[in-house]
Amino acid sequence: MSEASAQTTVRLAPPLVSGAVPGTGHYEEFCRNPAPFLMRCHAECGEVSSFDLAGLQTTLLVGEEAHEAVYRAPDSQLSAAQAYQFMVPVFGQGIQYGAPPVIERQQLKIQAAGLRHDRMVLYAPIVAQEVRDWIADWPDEGEEDFYEKFTELTLKTSTHCLMGADFRANMSDEFRGLYHDLEMAVDPEGLADPDQHGVMAERRDIARARLGELIGERVAQRRAALARGETFHDMFQHYLDATYADGTPLSDHEIAGMVVWFMFAGHHTSGNTSSWMLVELARHPDLMAEVVAELDGVLGDSEEVSFQSLREMPLLEAFLEEVLRLHAPLVTLTRRVMTDFHYKDYLIPAGGNVMVSPYVAHRQPEAFADPLTFNPGRTFPDGPFAYLPFGGGRHKCVGNAFALLQIRTIFAYLLRKFTFELSEPPEYYRDIMPSLILRPSDPCRLRFRRRAR
Ligand code: HEM
Question: Among 75, 300, 398, 420, which has the minimal tally of Cβ within 10 Å of its Cβ?
């Protein structure tokens, strides 16, 4: 064998990050807050680094080229389904990653079809109505924990667009509580072991079973209403009308799973991004003034924010884009290595996980000049593998158009009526990760005052 060809077959193990603890490796440091841990991995080892999550070897890949390699690998080699098995008890057996790949792909197509751009015109007025109702009884000034406020609002907008006006109007505390129990059972530790929290897992399973019953009752009511000739245009109806490629409709169990999946994917991601959006606006009063001036210019005397008017607000759009760069809510995008994965000189063996991190990716100076500075006027890289708030490849977010529509609508109404100030010094508001999703410090309090117009 020539020297050159011998060199091309050399395969290196990804370098292991320092600080592994005997027995558990980097598990505790990762679970405390994955974001700074992953930054440390990259700073120490560069493009490819590996760590040990209590026996699960995990490799972090950073940079456009490395992200592209991950996103271009087939599911049979880098599997999202196998990495996210901890979501199966939440969504239900037979749903998404709990279903065979051929079914999973069709279910995803159904979700995507219900969230296509042309359906946004149906959801825009619903989101607008929810936001108007939400702020209708605010006093002229006050102080609130806006993380809580946005979590409450996005639960309302999600359930309204998803389940229809009637369900939303009668949304019970039981529904809220059950959904909360499901959420509480998902955290970074789940990546290594889905069932380690005995009590939480038990509550999760009880909550999922009862939600299945409640949604099942809703299916029966909807079918009765359809039989009476009523018509509906929400996501729920879309699930009832949908069929697999062979013409089979979704079962009631599958409809319940699709509902929970939609709620999970869209609720906190949008709520947390809204919280960070507000913090960054209040942290940058000059930029907030520019966004407000744009808004006033587009809306004039109108009190309504139309679907069309939202498209005429590039500053608001750029602001949100920059919020999603520095505070992308999903910090770890994970795949299970099913067959050995080669990247450059590295061999990442089957059996472990690979990770792409939007948090780390968006702080790379090669892609984003002066990356730690909040600058909505910045130039974003052209390629699809540097800016990844919605992921990439075949598992890229199917709800991104809905999420952007929703957040822009929320801020168009909010900034039209109120102005905001931080309650704490700017450095108080940091990225924390008590669950799998990034959020600002807890509590996230801000002061508001009604604008004089
Ligand atoms: C700011 C808001 C949002 C962000 C930042 C976000 C981000 C993401 C990311 C990064 C992924 C890819 C996960 C991976 O590769 O492992 C994803 C997937 C997904 N998102 Fe979103 N998302 C948001 C809102 C939404 C909304 C509102 C919905 C639904 C209404 C939604 C539905 C989905 C679905 C169904 C998937 C799974 C795609 C698949 O399995 O292939 N997302 N999202």
Answer: 300
